[in-house]
Amino acid sequence: MILISACLCGCNCKYNGGNNYNEKIKRLYDEGNAILVCPEEMSGLSTPREPVEIQNGTGFDVLEGRAKVLSAQGTDVTEKFINGANKILDIALKNNVKTAILKAKSPSCGTGKIYDGTFTGTLKEGNGVTAELLKANKIQVLSEEDYI
């Protein structure tokens, strides 16, 4: 069993109410070997919602209490992001998940690169909160860009 970001399969759970549909990943889900997740919705955040980025660090720093997840207007959703990540980890562990395909660059799901917290579209090295927690628990995390 694998985890897939729900937005990649056409679920309208993206911050702006849209999705990030990827036909190849949707086919993988349709084969019946995947669980769709959205850590932001599972944390109780609404859709649509304010766009957010990790300020002063990465998902690792958020989990360690050294960084925050904030909107451009300053709304702090750090605890929601941690809560959502923990819910996804629980699902992964209960279902013996070994791999997750998550949305690139997301403050929750991004792996390898995320937005830098300035809301300018600039990327930095690092993982989102959920991606970081899954990796820390020995679950392979790929983005849709990595899935070939």
From TrEMBL:
Species per Swiss-Prot/TrEMBL record: Clostridium manihotivorum
Pfam families per record: 2-thiour_desulf (PF04463)
Protein name listed in UniProt: DUF523 domain-containing protein
Domain of life of the source: Bacteria
InterPro entries in UniProt: 2-thiour_desulf
